[in-house]
Amino acid sequence: MTPREYHHPNPDDISLPRVLAALSDPTRLEMICRLADGQEHDSLELADDLPRSTLTYHTRMLREAGVTWTRSEGRACLIRLRRKDLDELFPGVLAALIANAASKAAQE
């Protein structure tokens, strides 16, 4: 079985409006909070109780915006944040979004 290949934008092609649009969805923002530990996670760990088609849509939106790296390993789809690229391009933005989301989650 050939591993699935994923398209990732080059850092020069990542734009702040596209990143913010991808992170404006609560489901995708929750996924990013789960990825904030810096580890790779199987896509199935990133959202609770979502149909696979919906999960695939959200992970694709994050990948195509340049927010995440995705790779396949066997049947798993492993995802991690592109923290270094995002921090270099938009210093503090990712940390602020994650901190804000975590603060709101703690209040609920």
UniProtKB/TrEMBL annotation:
PROSITE patterns: HTH_ARSR_2. CDD domains: HTH_ARSR. Transmembrane segments: none annotated. SUPFAM superfamilies: Winged helix' DNA-binding domain. Gene3D superfamilies: Winged helix-like DNA-binding domain superfamily/Winged helix DNA-binding domain (1.10.10.10). Residues 8-101 form the HTH arsR-type domain. This is Helix-turn-helix transcriptional regulator.
